[in-house]
Amino acid sequence: MMMGEAPRERLVCIFGPTGVGKSAFALKLAEHFGGEIVGADSMQVYRRMDVGTAKPTREERGRVFHHLIDVVEPDQPFDVSRYQEMAAGAVTAVLEKGKTPFVVGGTGLYIRALLGGLIDGPPADEALRKMLKAQLAERGKAYLYGMLAEKDTRAAAAIHPHDGIRIVRALEVLELTGRSIVEYQERHRFQNSRWDALRIGLRLKREELYRRIDERVDRMMEAGFLAEVEGLLHSGFDHSLKPMQSLGYRHLSAAVAGKTPLDEAIRLIKRDTRMYSKRQMTWFSADHQAVWLGPNHLEGAKKLIDSFLSKMET
Fold first, then answer.
1. pTM for this predicted structure
2. Theoretical Cys-Cys bridge with 252: which of 198, 203, 229, 243, CB 3.0 to 4.6 Å?
3. Which of the four pLDDT bands, split at 50, 70 and 90, describes residue 32?
4. What is the distance between the alpha carbons of residues 241 and 250, in angstroms, rounded to a whole number?
5. What is the DSSP string of 59-114?
6. Would the pLDDT of 134 be above 50?
7. Are residues 105 and 131 in the same domain?
8. How many domains does the chain have?
């Protein structure tokens, strides 16, 4: 810290791939330190989508207050800019109470935007974007994703094949600058943060993580995931909506429509979730300031956080 510069307030960030155990891990830590949780999950912001997004239960929310859960309907717009604004407000509110914010989730872009601001890149080229969106509408996401994978393997590894918005933006940046959007992200990574953040990443051996993912999907199905999707569709939330195209929801929407047998839909959910976890780890592994722990290393995390929160600014 430069002389005369005010010390930055502190927060704890806990991230990792889906199924690794972030929620239970963070809940125990936030409870232990008397903090509050600020969600960093692009799906848990949607109301009515509970089972398939693995939202914290009422009992868990009673133990620790959670922010950024159930803030919009599935047919309402929500993006990283809105997340950044709302999450920053939540973090500030927690700090003003004299508590520690625990930013928890697996949406790397949301965490990056909150801690370091939105990435500066070339401004949108409307003509180019219109052309790419036309190709997206005419030929589908798989075609555009294939184009991205051929031209920019690094961006393709970090972007979900069904995320049409980010695929279009990555292709746009590449066309306008000749550079990968990943270069802009790496140059920007977690710079100029308004808070001092302890970043704890959770990871497991791949075989164990994949086993947990498969078991988690089975538990979701037992908890009524299919009925949740049926209810959303019957309530008028079309399968084409952005959140309805997310993991699990798009697969079960196809099963409800009779396009995919249920057993096959479940198999695909497991497969695609495993693939998604791999992309998440690619993203998070680029953060060289992260301290990596296993989800059972709770005592080690407590020591890290205790030291972080009590350290003197120099």
1. 0.80
2. 229
3. very high
4. 10
5. HHHHHS-EESSS-B-TTS---HHHHHHHHHHHHHHHHHTT--EEEEES-HHHHHHH
6. yes
7. no
8. 2
